[in-house]
Amino acid sequence: MIKNTECNCKAYSDATACPLCDATAPPAIPRPIDAVYAAPVSQALPIARNRAIYILLALFLGIFGAHNFYAGYHGRAICQLLITLLLGWLLIGVMITGLWALVEMITVETDASGVQMV
Question: CA-CA 20 to 30 A from 71: which of 2, 3, 4, 93?
């Protein structure tokens, strides 16, 4: 309901006239459906990583997690690095992370942000 200033009565916004004094209601202010209340932020397009570089890093430095650092998987990379450093002298750490890097080299096709590697 909108208060009408002419007769001091309340006029409905969807009605064409006030039911008491026939004064017309002021027009409703149209609002856009998708109104934006904050300034738009320009976001840079994500950079596609090179799959060949990813494979080479996994092949030669995979036990240290270098390929995952390159692709943005920092949690995996730190885990591989710690396993190699803590268990590498037993050779079990190198075997675990080496197999892990081999599997990732074959199966991973996107980086951490979900962009397909080219």
Answer: 93
